[in-house]
Amino acid sequence: LLLAATINALLRGKSADLRHRVWFAAITATAAIGAFALFPRALPATITFQVATSAVPLAIRPTSSWLGTLRYLWLLGAALCCLRLMAGIAVIAWWTRFAQHKVTMPLTWGFFRPRVLLPTSAADWPEFRRDVAMRHESAHIQRLDWICQIVASAVTSIFWFQPLLWVALHRIRIEAERAADDHVLESGVDAAAYAVELVAVARAASGRTPMTAVPMARVNQLEDRIRRILDPSTRRTPLGRAGKLVFTAVAFIASWGIGAATTAPYRVGPQSATSSPKVLRKIGWPTVAEDFGHAP
Q1: What DSSP state is assigned to residue 292?
Q2: How far apart are the first and last CA of the chain?
């Protein structure tokens, strides 16, 4: 995650699409590391040191009770965060079927059949406002932003104790909106006119939109987005098909490699007869002679 933050700092002048992919790759890499940690490869029950001609089995003791308490606290926090995530999805599903009047801003959601929800007031909107709203939400669907956001939210919910994951999730939401803005502007929409409509949509919205939705405009991100929309020097072109394939391959290999390397089991091989006592003393373990009260 720190590496992703550093890379994105270097990519400040690049497109939001690329920065979004870097953050999402960092979250998936964190998930891979967590998966290796939760389901480690089997370790041997004992570690054997060869000292002279004798073998001393060293049993691995069970973890202490406070580690068990921490494990239960982690599970409790993960359960609460996952319930919060599922409740947010349930609210959006309820709005879609039974309470569309609660939708006050264009938003999209959905796995297999993505949907765009418009507020009931959209019937009175100017045609241009409806057009840019649909372009913006369609960009989210094409980019799979809602799915990426849910995956990132699920990983963050499981590993809720990692603060950098919450930062990464926040940045993913910001970069997704910026990338959708870039898509609208790349389609030929005038930047100033689009900024005006974006402000109008945000002003007309009331209430809170669940974090599990991908809305057109969140008030706390609006000022920065408007500034970026009106900046003619901003790079807006997303990665091409070849660039996406290369980036995905590199991110997958890096995620798997980091996950495997950071959780590789620690194994100790046999030591020579002359060096073993010195090694054991250095790390604070008694030698065979010391164990029987005959320290050399």
Answers
A1: T
A2: 50
**105, 117, 142, 179, 207 from 137: Cα distances, Å:** 11, 9, 9, 11, 20
Q: Report the alpha-carbon distance of residue 243 to residue 12 in Å, rounded.
A: 18
Report the C-alpha gap between 267 and 263 in whole angstroms: 12
The partner residues of 165 in beta bridges, in order of sequence, read none
Residue tagged 């953050």 (tokens): 23
- Give the model's pLDDT for residue 24: 92
Quick one: pLDDT at residue 245? Answer: 74
Q: Which of 231, 228, 250 is nearest to 239 (CA)?
A: 250
Query: What φ, ψ does residue 214 adopt, rounded to 5°?
Result: -115, 90
Q: Are 248 and 24 in contact (CB under 8 A)?
A: no
Helical axes 127-143 vs 191-204, angle rounded to 10°? 90
- b (16+ CB within 10 A) / e for 111-121: eeebebbbbee
What is the C-alpha separation between 240 and 242, in angstroms, rounded?
6
Is the torsion defined by CA of 144, 147, 149, 151 positive or negative?
negative
Tokens 């974006």 belong to which residue? 198
- Give the pLDDT band (50/70/90) at residue 109: very high
75, two tokens: 């599970």
What's the rounded Cα separation, in Å, for the pair 135 and 184?
Answer: 6
- Phi first, then psi, for residue 257 (nearest 5°) are -65, -45
Beta bridge partners of 52: none
Torsion of CA 54, 58, 59, 65, to 10 degrees: 160
Confidence grade of residue 267 (pLDDT, cut at 50, 70, 90): very low
Q: What is the DSSP string of 228-266?
A: HHT-TT---PPP-HHHHHHHHHHHHHHHHHHHHHHTPPP
Q: Which of these, 261, 281, 287, 292, lies nearest to 36 by C-alpha position?
A: 261
